[in-house]
Amino acid sequence: MEFDGTFGLEDVTTEEVWLALSDPIMVKNALPGCQFLVEVDDPDDVDFDALADEAAEREDPPTLPEADPEDVAERGLTEGGHYAALVQVGVGSVKPRFETVVTIDRREFPEMDASGQGSASDSSFEMDSGMTLVETDDGVDVEWWTEADVFGRVAQMGQRVINPVANRVVGRFFKQIQTELSDVGGGSSGLRDRISNFI
Amino acid sequence: MVAPDEGVQSIDPDDVDAADILGSAIERREDPALLTGDAEYTDDIELPNMVHVAIKRSQHAHARIDGIDTSDAEALEGVLDVITADDLDVPGNLPTGWLLDSLEQVEHPILAGDRVRYQGDALAVVVAEERYVAHDALTRIEVDYDRLDAVTDPAEALDDDAPVVHDDAGDNTAFDWEIGDAEKTDAAFADADHVVDLDVENQLLIPNAMEPRAAVADYNPSNDELEVHMTSQNPHLHRLLMSGVIDHPEHKLRVRAPDVGGGFGSKIHHYADEALVALAAKRHERPVKWTARRTETYLTDAPGRGHDTHAEMALSDDGDILGFRVDTKANLGAYLSTFAPAVPTYLYGTLLSGQYDMPAIHCSVEGAFTNVPPVDAYRGAGRPEASFLVERMIHRAAKALGMDPAAFRRRNFVQEFPYQTQVAVEYDSGDYEKTLDLALDHLDYDAFRERQAEAREDGRYLGVGLSAYIEACGLAPSELAGQLGAQAGLWESGLVRFHPSGTVTAYCGTSGHGQGHDTTYAQIVANELGVDYDDVEVVEGDTDEIPQGMGTYGSRSAAVGGSALVKSSQKLVEKAKRIAAHQLEAAPEDVEFENGDFRVAGAPDRSMTITEVATQAYLAHDMPDDMEPGLEATSFYDPDNFVFPFGVHAAIVEVDPDTGEIDIEQYVAVDDVGNQINPKIVEGQIHGGVAQGIGQALYEGAEFDDNGQLVTGSMQDYTVPKAEHIPEMETDSTCTPSPVNPLGVKGVGEAGTIAAPQAVVNAVCDALEPLGVEHIDMPLKAERVWQAANATAATDGGEE
Predict the structure, then answer these.
(1) Contact status of B655 with chain A (Cβ, < 8 Å)
(2) Core-most of A174, B15, B18, B323, by most CB within 10 Å?
(3) Region B428-470+642-792: CATH code
(4) pLDDT tens sequence across A185-194
(5) CB-CB: which of B138, B705, B717 is closest to A160?
């Protein structure tokens, strides 16, 4: 299955969006149903139960605009890095809990490609994704695409069910990013200038 | 929908004279229970202390299994057991009931161990106190898959670089089969003035019985008796096969089909699920129930059709068919289902002569293993594929020669019966022109052609499609079936038993699941015995009650099962006549039997009714010497030949090339099914069959993605036609009694499904002929029709 789209974020700079979308904490908070998103060493050997326990006890550090841009850049996604996530999403009559591992294949401002797979008890997926940030008159367009192979119960429901779910997840994700970033440019702390220095 | 003033009117049986009961359109006696909810389906069965199973199915179409972790599922409260392949200690291999010389037999385990080959392949069984708990536990079973590439199309599966489904059948070839005379056919093509050819896909269909498959098993450890109530079209066959699969003695296994909500072939086959339910019952010594969810039926009910075919027809300038050459790749799915090898071979290749005198035919079929569910018989089974191909080719041939399709058919019809085809079978009887003439009358064919020409001038696209179909029903005789590879006989048993009070119970080894056998068999037996229709009860679908049986499929029940009841009734009348003669003090040859009365010839006052004889037979106070008491008879009827129903279905359509939409303006079904036991039931079978045929023509089709994932896995994604999709049908019939069986019947259960698709497709192609459309593969969804209409139009425009 192929999905793609463009999401426009207003009153933000390309650098801010880049930093925000590189922040695993920000991404985790914005992604509906995401319980954790952490870097792992070996993508083939991930103990999701242990990671879930750790995540439950951990208090997340602040994200932009409260966070120090330096800290955000420090913890940001890296090319070649592997990230484990636990994501539960309702698709039609089922609500599979996907144990997901994503690898950042390419990361060159303002473009990023990732691949990954996720598995639940009766469904799974494999995907390649990418995004490009494009500056516009009043903000930034995030152009994104995903090619996914979907298996099992979720696949059986077909694109008819999956498409709206994908659109809903992506829509909520970017709306949340927009909300988080809306204060970045508005403040007088010089945050915007500091962020641009990290790119 | 037939308008109220048309069609056959139902009659109350009380309003029919006893002598006229056979052939009357009496109301179906099974309907009140079905309509009020009094019917008992398998899922309605509740037994004390019953537990439930749910089946873990592969999410991948093709994968190695590196491990299955059931510990989380077993830990769930209410779960009694999780069974995997490692836990099985029975043969557990589903057998194939039809063998071919070249057949590659592969293992078909009831639980996959280290490899799954289709999405839905069973991996584990959860046994739990509650049904919902069993299903919840499924999500806690961790399966370690190593996914493999999948292939779902038969032609692609036979390519050299295709993923291998079974390592033992490395080229994915299940069999390589042929029929007819290749040399003679080559010679016919060498002499031909014209050759037309066509590539046809006959798409894979999902059966969609209203009631999903289900089973309830109950085991008694004290006497080792195992009862399995299940959605079966053939309980005795299921008993025989299951006794081997689960290693349980056949005589201690009872298989019973309660009311069954449709099958269309999908409840013939022996699947893994029912055997797993039986094993769970034995393992836990508690009653066990399983009912498939609708999504499971989509994944596991054997789909039908699935052919990729290239066909060529050799023609003379005069309009004669000289030869027919067919090359088919048939999809068999991941394993060989029960009768799978027969469907694309003997049930297909033998029908390729259609209604036509074809002097040379050759057909080769390659069966391919793929990563789709095991394919098997679905309403019509091989015969719709043959009839569709023949009638599409006939349409193409007529157009190529510039002849009217009706006239071309008439010229090539078989005229003399019996007729020996070039593909093994001999047609019993027929009058093909008669059904064509009647269909053309209904259409007002010549007037339509004028109307069509006028409409074209107005930019409207009307078309007429004819379908002169033939089918073979009541597969027989057993000796021939055995020579062709059947691993079962194809006779039928019938037991007719008088009770001492004079009422009758008839037992038949067929197993109706919507066909109305309780009514039609009672009509047959009442007619033979001359007893009141209401005094005859019919029993089917229980291996403990019925001597033996082969089941209901292939439109065989009336022709074979009904005939077995006739034979038994006749034996019974013979015995009754000797008892009556003895008590009337006459010689048996002087006693006549008519309408239930035994009379001494020439002395009309000396008579006994057959019910009085029955009472005497059980009193046994005054019996002829050496005659045993009682009055019942059993027959095993093995017919001499198939029977060959035929007819002409026709559709008039209007197609909108701007939207691709098809409007069926008129649908005519003229069928000759021989003598009709109950014309209302015949009409109902035609209606249902045509609806399913139109479903294939316009809406239905299983679709898989590149990974073998079924993407039409629910009723929202797979269009079963609804009432609004089905046009009004005009039904009519002729009657050419079959000489093969004592009832002169030919079978009607599949006729509509076989006849309808090509009537619709021919009509659409006829409508779009001015736009250069020669063929569109089914289903004729608006998008496909639009593309066909506009692709050709665009090309033509470009050239100009």
Answers:
(1) no
(2) B323
(3) 3.30.365.10
(4) 655 556 777 7
(5) B717
| End-to-end Cα spacing for chain B | 46
Q: Which pLDDT score is estimated for B798?
A: 41
Question: What average pLDDT does range B148-160 have in this prediction?
Answer: 98
The model's pLDDT over B182-233, given as tens digits with 9 standing for 90+, comes to 999 999 999 999 999 999 999 999 999 999 999 999 999 999 999 999 999 9
The DSSP-derived string for B692-739 is HHHIIIII----B-TT--BS--STTTS----GGGS--EEEEE-----S
Q: DSSP E strands: which ranges in B682-737? A: 729-733
B513 DSSP 8-state letter: S
Spatial contact of A126 and A117, defined as CB atoms under 8 Å apart: yes
pLDDT in tens, B280-321: 999 999 999 999 999 999 999 999 999 999 999 999 999 999
Q: Does A123 touch chain B (CB under 8 A)?
A: yes
Could you give the CA distance from residue B8 to residue B540 in angstroms, rounded to a whole number?
27
Question: Residue B569 in contact with residue B496, Cβ under 8 Å?
Answer: yes
Contact between B198 and B320 (Cβ < 8 Å): no
Model-level pTM?
0.94
Indicate the SS3 state at residue A25: helix
pLDDT digit string, tens, across residues B380-430: 999 999 999 999 999 999 999 999 999 999 999 999 999 999 999 999 889
Q: Report the alpha-carbon distance of residue B301 to residue B373 in Å, rounded.
A: 8
B49 touches chain A (CB under 8 A): no
Q: Is B384 helix (H, G, I), strand (E, B) or coil?
A: helix
Across the interface, which of A120, A153, A158 has its CB nearest the CB of B711?
A158
Cα B176 to Cα B369: distance, rounded to the nearest angstrom: 12
Out of B140, B710, B712, the one facing A121 most closely (by C-beta) is: B140
CA–CA gap between residue B624 and residue A148 (Å, rounded): 83
The domain limits of chain B are 13-42, 428-470+642-792, 491-637
Instruction: Provide the token pair at A99.
Output: 């144990």
**Which class is A2-197 in CATH?**
alpha beta
Residue (of B722, B628, B718, B730) closest to B670 by Cα position: B730
Give residues with Cβ within 8 angstroms of B561, minimum separation 6: B492, B494, B508, B509, B510, B517, B521, B552
Which chain B residues have a beta carbon less than 8 Å from that of A122? 59, 138-139
Q: Are strands B122-128 and B51-57 parallel, antiparallel or unpaired?
A: antiparallel
CB–CB of B709 and A156 under 8 A? yes
Tell me if domain B428-470+642-792 and domain B491-637 are identical in fold.
Answer: yes
Instruction: Give the separation between CA B456 and CA B439, rounded to whole angstroms.
Output: 23
Write down the number of H helices and E strands in chain A: 7, 7
Contact between A157 and B717 using a beta-carbon 8 Å cutoff: yes
B764-795 pLDDT tens trace = 999 999 999 999 999 999 999 999 999 865 55
CB contact under 8 A, B713 and A157: yes
Does residue B62 belong to the interface with chain A, where contact is any CB pair within 8 Å? no
Contacts of A155 in chain B (CB under 8 A): 59, 119, 705, 709-711, 713
Read off the pLDDT of each residue in B603-631 and give the average, rounded to a whole number: 96
What pLDDT does residue B588 have? 95
Whether A147 and chain B come into contact, CB under 8 Å, resolves to: no
**How many interface pairs between A and B have CB atoms less than 8 angstroms apart?**
57
Hey, what CATH topology would domain B491-637 get?
Aldehyde Oxidoreductase; domain 4 (3.30.365)
pLDDT band of residue B799 (cuts 50, 70, 90) is very low
CA distance B142 to chain A (A): 6
Beta-strand ranges (E) seen in chain A are 2-10, 34-40, 82-88, 97-108, 111-119, 123-136, 139-152
Segment B433-450 mean pLDDT: 97
pLDDT at B635 over 50: yes
Structure tokens given for B490: 């194809």
Residue B92's pLDDT is 94
User: What's the mean pLDDT when you consider all of chain B?
Assistant: 96
